[in-house]
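Data card: per-record layout.
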Amino acid sequence: MEYPVIVEKDGIKIRPENMIVDKMYYCIYDNKVYIFYKDEEDLTHCYEVDEPLVVQEIINNPDKLEDILLKHSKE
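The structure for this 75-residue chain is written out next.
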């Protein structure tokens, strides 16, 4: 299945039909991390992370996205 979040020069395009419910997808655009997920009610949610240290940590360790977010949510 094709990754549902695509970054283009004009912005971010998402394809919710390619998303698995409650799975996070992310992309990096304009020095920010954007996180998307689809819930059980078929609603797509988007969150923006613009804290430079957190963004860099996610860029360096993308496979630990959830752990990084959890760690910084407690600070």
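Known properties of this structure: The longest strand covers residues 32-38. Helices lie at 52-60, 65-73.

See the next section for split statistics.
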